[in-house]
Amino acid sequence: MFKKAIAGTAVFLLLTGLAGAQLSETEQRIVAAVKQRSPAALELLEKSVRINSGTLNPEGVRAVGEIYRSELDALGFKTRWIDMPPAMKRAGHLVATHEGGAGQRVLLLGHLDTVFEKGSSVPLWDRQGDRVRGQGVNDMKGGDVVMIEALRALASVGALEHANVEVMLTGDEERTGRPLQTARADMVAMGKRADYALSFEASGKHDGVDTASISRRSAGGWTLHVEGKAAHSSGVFSAQSGYGAIYETARILDAFREQVIEPSLTFNPGLVFGGTTVAYAEDTATASAFGKSNVIARDAEVVGDLRYLTPEQGERARRKMRAIVSAGNLPGTSATIRFIESYPPMPPTEAGRRLAELYSQASLDAGLGRIDIADPSLRGAGDVQFVAPYTVGIDGLGAQGRGAHTDDEDLEIASIERGAIRAALLVYRLTRVAPVPKTF
Ligand SMILES: [Zn+2]
Predict the structure, then answer these.
(1) What is this structure's pTM?
(2) How far is the CA of 414 from the centre of ligand 1 (A)?
(3) What pLDDT, on a 0 to 100 scale, did the predictor assign at position 280?
């Protein structure tokens, strides 16, 4: 009976929302609570941004985790730190759980690390009027603060009491530890029991309208290895000496370009090297090669990436690439290609679209404008993709800024308040509805 009443109220809220930008009395108090905290939210952001937390600086990542952990502790979450095996050389992850009642379970995702390693010349924190430049301000400590302030607002009006919310802040999103199965095992387990996953990576903007993502492309790579016969260059093209590894590499890459391209699919050879002998150091992404113009190349290698929207598209691309590599080789050459998938694709789904509608409606109701769905080809990969096969996900609920990953990464300060209001309303509405059995 009680459960039914809650679900009924939520449906009513959704309907009134559709009818015309209305917030319930509790929701109005949630919005007021976020606004009241805005100066303190910026201070929390500054405190966490002033600690360098490059992925390869585990002490820094843990220190930022400690700051957020004490905030979540204060909101009544049970928090714990998950260590990764020492060989992985990563800080581990912060997990926080709040159990409450029979409503839908929501998983909130963020990350503690940034691309700015210790010794980076980018200033930690450089306030410039209504913006701030600094290490990870929008990717994604700004998003972490949006998430925490949304939860704080819910707690302050008593709305968290009956909510099932789990938080995971990873320590290695920018350079995921290996093996991936270990690095993301806990996240996958949390994704399996969640009804929704909300990820707080930076929000986007398209034609002046804020955007969120319901699909993200896979991120993976490939290495092409080509072998030829080392011989005097005067014999190149002959049946005996063949064409050498470099001509064969050129044939393969050109065939990729001519035969494999399709919408939403990209593959980029980022490094090519060849000669008589070659070597490649993966940890520094550096190649060396020895060769002479009068010797036919014996070895060549290409290091590339591959991004696709659906598993089927990925399979099709790999099949075509393998066929090109193994058939039609120039005389005297052979080639092999190896694929590595790091982030699985998150294809667009109807359930994801409905979740994006709820998010947009929450924003409209709060007077913050509609939210459009972002074009997946315009952004890279993210943690939400690991849980996408098990739950309904949305990304881009975080802060807004420019130049993520660059020396000029910055943040529009007002986007913290905006994001926190939208996220708080969405979490409030989702957690008040009883779950329906998963169809995954
Ligand atoms: Zn990020």
Answers:
(1) 0.84
(2) 19
(3) 95
